[in-house]
Amino acid sequence: MPTVVLMDVSLSMTRPVSLDGIEEFQRKNLAVHGLNMLFEHMASNYRLEFTALMAFSSLWELLVPFTRDYNALQEALSNLEDYDKTCLELALQGVSSVVQQEWGNGCPCQVVLVTDGSLGIGKGSLRHSLQTLKHRGDDKKFPLPYPFPTKMFILCVANAEELQMTDAMENLEELLRLSGGDGQIFTVDGPLCMKSVQAMFGMLIDRAYSPFHAVLHCGNLSSDVQVFPRPEPVVVDEEVEPIPRAVSTDLEIVGFIEIADISSPPVISRHLVLPIAVNKEVDEVGTGTTDELEEEPSASQMAGKSPNFCVLLHGSLKVEGMVALVQLGPEWFGMLYSQADSKKKSNLMMSLFEPGSDPLPWLGKISHLGPVSEAAENPYGEDDSKSPFPLQPQVKRSYAQNVTVWIKASGLQTDVQKILRNARKLPDKTQTFYKELNRLRKAALAFGFWELLKGVAELLERECTMLPDSAHPDAAFQLSHAAHQLKLASSGDSQYAAFDHNIVPMHTDFSS
Amino acid sequence: MKMFSVAHKTVFVVDHCPYMAESSRQQVECDVLTKSRAQGVIPLAPVSKSLWTCAVECSMEYCRILFDVYPKDKLVNYIVSDSEFHILNTWRREDQSTHELMSALAAVGPPNPREDPECCSILHGLVAAVEALCKITELQHEKRTALMDTAERVANRGRIICLTNAKSDTHVRMLEDCIQETISEQNKLAAGSDRLMAIQQCDLVLVHIYPQGEETLVSDRPKKEISPLLTSEVHSVRAGRHLASKLNILVQQHFDLASTTITNIPMKPTLNVCEQEEQHANTSANYDVELLHHRDAHIEFFKSGDLHMAGTSTRENGVKETMTLKWCTPRTNSIELHYCTGAYRISPTDVNSRPSSCLTNFLLNGRSVLLEQPRKSGSKVISHMLSSHGGEIFLHVLNSNRSTLEDPPSISEGCGGRVTDYRITDFGEFMRDNRLTPVAEASHDPSGKLPVERAKAQLERYTRYWPMIISQTTIFNMQAVVPLANLIVKEALTEEDLLTCQKTIYNLVDMERKNDPLPISTVGSRGKGPKRDEQYRIMWNELETLVKTHAGATDRHQRVLECIIACRSKPPEEEERKKRGRKREEREDRTEKNGSKEAEDKSWQESERLKGLLEKEDQESEVIKDSPDSPEPLNKKPRLISEDVQPPERAKGPATLLSMWTNRITVANSRKHQEFFGRASSVNSKFELYQHLKEENGMDAHENGKATR
User: Fold this and answer.
1) What is the Cα–Cα distance from B487 to B504, expressed in whole angstroms?
2) At the N or C end, where does chain B have fewer CB atoms within 10 A?
3) In percent, how much of chain A has pLDDT > 90?
4) Is residue B689 part of a domain?
5) B301 and B247: one domain?
6) Can you give the residue range of the structural domain that contains B154?
7) Residue A217 and residue A350 in one domain
8) Contact B404 A398 (CB under 8 A)
9) Complex ipTM, two decimals?
10) Taking the CB of residue B494, how many other CB atoms lie within 10 A of it?
11) What does the pLDDT read at residue B637?
12) pLDDT 10s digits, A294-343
């Protein structure tokens, strides 16, 4: 989930903060300090996150486009300049276009807005934007909610009391609500100082940037893994199940399926599954001392040399062209597979299915998938020539069962012509003739379209009179028999108009 | 869409009163004469559908689309109303099919025009519809049971679609009032019942149908709230195709559907989309097919506001939009795992038209088609895929945006990435053994475990002892162990299985007796690996470890373990005995310096020392070069020439082509000349020269056939 850091560089950010009279800081310095801490954390624990840095005042500027180079981000932070007033709406607009340009509109994004809570005055201020929300044309819509799923984190270099003195807090809460509500407003606890700002950013890190560690199990084989990006909790049905479901930290493989059988299933998200060394798990927040940095390569080299289940699993999934079905929680499943990128680097990936007992109709209920060994006969065949998948639905869909639809005149005409065409080829086409005739009869009875039955009966009688001399004598018998039966059905007489009744070919001496 | 939105329950109430037997006055020419037969034949007079027929076939089309797209839990209850109401089906899942409904409709038949209009009313049906909405569905019941104390989260909403011929706007208002009244009555009733649920929301969609060429007596009215429980909207529509397109729009609105038109479908014979049946088989035309599906398949376009670009078009009636996607060649193959963000069932709008059925048959035969999104820039973006899974066609949405997971560290750079001897093939085999298969819900396991739990239990059993790398294991590198290894993981063993396991063990004992080489890995250990004895010890230990993890399962598993313990204890003893025997001989030959007490000690020390020595030696080499302390090898006796050239122990190992060739040549050559005396009587290809000198000195020339210094 990419992150956009939106940094307020308006003049109000330069307001001085006195720290026990020792040193004077600007709020900006505190914010930069906090962001540096965030970037350092990400560099060591959340390296794969793409982050962009934007600065805004009355205008906005993309300082660093999406990158994993956290040095570049920190560098840009150290070169921030001060500008004029705050105009949030334009900046939010900017975020929208920057994100969509890079990732399209389906990719969930996190927006980290760092400000001091003074949100501008007059036109362009957040208050003004929110007040005029409902009186806007289509061309000047407020940028929120974004088309992409958004997590909005608002970090105020100000304490809650300060914000509540004005309507700033209210406005920010409204902003959060507009963004979709998934996010949080953080304020400084207590007086402004390095420590309290650090604590605030620490809360953001815990909330959104702590790596997701889990254990991948396959029976007694297991591996510690990091799942990246963090799998987000999912709300299945806001009414029936309003509590979001979270992915368990124990990922249990339940079995394996061929790629062709799972066949490009829809997924709600994709994640890298990276094996981690257990002893490394302790340093959650990178303290970043030089000693540790020197030790790390040797530790990771060690880890590289001891066998890891993920690597084995990945290798075999890749070679065999299979996926592993993995349970993420109660009635929630996903799949593990090998994914190669354009550079032929390959990785273990996990995709999450929609929570529920049967996310993929062609597999059926996942809880009802059992081991092959239980089947009396191997459903894959002795030579892997068969497969128990896909599951066939109990009822065929309309397009798979030759339904009769006469909404367009052409549909009706085609069906009548089909009967006549076969009528002319009697007795060779006796079977097809009666099959088509019965199909038409059934539909006409269901639709209460008795007039059609009479009409077709007349047509058949006419065909009978027009039979050439060379025609087989059986043809005339069958035609008049069919016409008679249709007429009987059109009378509505329950004996002849039963839906499940079929007109059967007349038994003649010619038909043997 | 919420699970229990109004879309969960739809009641169709269709008017079956005498006036519905009236003609729609839309005529259908069903006797289309071909030119060649046209002469002298009076064509059949065109037929026309009654209002009833129009209503029924359009409602069936609504249901057809609904059941195609939502085969489960979007339910329809069909009611027909004349002098009384006739409920044609129930909410039960097995009643939800057009075939069931058609059969029931056939039994009802068209309205009887001679029935007394005074006794007939749509009201009977509407009251029955409200009652039906109060009835609990299977899904509602299941969820209420599952949620227990939060059962109130299961809502009861529904929609009534009434197809009728109303007399006036006042008549419509009267119907609305009546429904409102019935809802409050029924809700009171439902409060005291377990099988009924109070209605929380009801949407009434009243469709007034009138014949072509007549003026409507009822005016259209958009959705309005009659009460907090009831909303109502009125559509006044002419029978025939107007009614059909109205219901088509309604089904899309009611179930969040959207339309996609697939363009450029090649109906060339080469592509096999259509059989070569067209009259002009040589001309290849491109066809369009319109499909309906959940509108989330278009979510990207909706969000980006691109819906009004080149790809979309608005229909003549201005209500419905369709998104155009282009058929794309080349096709995709099934073993490719696309990143797919959604898959939605489709239903063709014009199901039995030729292009539609060609496309659907093509897909039902198991082929997939990629679809391209037209873009202003002209760049090619593949955004969707049509594919069938088990007789159902799905529109897959493919991700066409940049991935946030690009350029990840390769798995070979991470933990365990440097290890090169993973048992990839064996694990592949393991995965095949642990593939899943659907198990019928009916087949109940005595343990009461769900199939998926049994699958997990099997994985647990199969992995109790599963070394991940080749150099960590001996037994899994041995073909001879396979039968046992495959059987021991089973939950229960048959008598036959037990026998196979025992045979495997005996076979191993046999191998040991014959001193067959084992595939012990030398990776990691310095030198040339452990000695044969030690190899077997390692192998037996490992086998015992494997079987021990399963021994507790059943009696037969235990017996396999017992068999191993029994068998492996013998050979080491034998070896020991042999060794001691040899020692004794040796000692006898030497001077009796050592006491018998020390003998055992020494033999132990020697064997330890031997092990150390052996680790430095080739594991294939059985011949111990003359070290003074080493016990005499059994086979160190003077031999015949040919045997010496080809030592038997080497023959056990796989013979190389070179050795075979050399042997052949040597044997051939040996026939051509008389062997030197020295070589012929040599020991280990050594022959002491000037033996006569020693003899003259009166010393022993030989000790155990070995030359001494």
Assistant:
1) 11
2) C
3) 48
4) no
5) no
6) 9-29+46-255
7) yes
8) no
9) 0.89
10) 11
11) 40
12) 444 556 666 778 899 999 999 999 999 999 999 999 999 999 999 887 66
Residue of B436, B454, B463 to mutate for A, most A C-beta atoms under 10 A: B436
Q: Does A362 touch chain B (CB under 8 A)?
A: yes
Mutation for B interface: A311, A372, A406, A488, most B CBs within 10 A = A311
Would you say residue A439 lies in a domain? yes
Match 């066939």 to its residue by tokens: A392
The verdict on A162 and A222 lying in the same domain is no
The residues in B 422-461 lying below 8 A from A, measured between CB atoms, are 422-425, 427-428, 430-441, 450-452, 454-456, 458-461
Instruction: At B177, list the tokens.
Output: 């009032």
**How many angstroms separate the CA of residue B420 from the nearest CA in chain A?**
9
Q: What pLDDT sits at residue B216?
A: 87
Place of tokens 């027009």: A466
As a whole number, the mean pLDDT across chain A is 87
Instruction: Quote the Cα angle for A51-A52-A53, to 5°.
Output: 125
Q: Is the domain of A22 the same as that of A100? A: yes
**Integer Cα distance of B183 and B198 in angstroms:** 8
Joined together, the tokens standing for residue A478 give 């069958």
The better pLDDT of the pair A34, B31 is held by A34
8 A C-beta contact, residue A362 and residue A263? yes
What would the two tokens of residue B662 be?
């050399």
Q: Which of A6-20, A495-509, B248-262 has the highest mean pLDDT?
A: B248-262
Check: CB of residue A80 under 8 Å from CB of residue A7. yes
Residues of chain A positioned with their CB less than 8 A from the CB of B49: 447, 449, 451
Token pair belonging to B254: 């009611």
Does residue A512 lie within any of the structural domains?
Answer: no
Same domain, B478 and B503: yes
Confidence (pLDDT) at B316:
41
Instruction: Say whether A265 and B98 touch across the interface (CB within 8 A).
Output: no
Of B45, B400, B415, the CB nearest to A308: B415
Residue range A174-189: mean pLDDT, rounded: 90
Of residues B507 and A118, which shows the higher confidence score?
Answer: B507
Q: pLDDT at position A283, please?
A: 42
Indicate if A47 and A161 belong to the same structural domain.
Answer: yes
State whether A219 and B456 contact (CB < 8 Å). Answer: yes
* Rounded (5°) CA angle B204-B210-B215: 115
Q: How many CB atoms lie within 10 A of CB A346?
A: 18
* Min Cα separation B453/chain A (Å): 8
Torsion angle of the four alpha carbons B116, B119, B121, B125, in this order, in degrees rounded to the nearest 10? -120
Distance CA B344, CA A266 (A): 9
Alpha helices in B552-627 (DSSP H): 555-589, 596-615
Nearest-by-CA chain B residue for A146: B303
For chain B, residues with pLDDT lower than 70 are 33-40, 268-284, 303-320, 330-332, 334, 376-378, 441-446, 521-530, 569-655, 693-709
Nearest CB among A276, A306, A399 relative to B360 is that of A399
**In this complex, is the C-beta atom of A470 within 8 Å of any C-beta atom belonging to chain B?**
no
Alpha helices per DSSP H over B618-683:
641-645, 648-652, 657-672, 677-680
- How confident is the model at residue B573, as a pLDDT? 54
Cis previous bond, A229, omega within 30: yes
Q: Is residue B298 within 8 Å of B345, Cβ to Cβ? A: no
Q: Is the pLDDT of residue A293 over 90?
A: no
Q: Across the interface, do B409 and A277 touch by the CB < 8 Å criterion?
A: no
Q: How confident is the model at residue B305, as a pLDDT?
A: 57
CB B289 within 8 A of CB B369: no
Per-residue CA distances from B71 to B64, B76, B356 (Å) = 10, 11, 20
Rounded to the nearest angstrom, the minimum Cα separation between B346 and chain A is 10
Q: Between A337, A346, A384, which is nearest B411 by CB?
A: A346
pLDDT for residue A159 is more than 90: no
Residues B427 and B348 in one domain: no
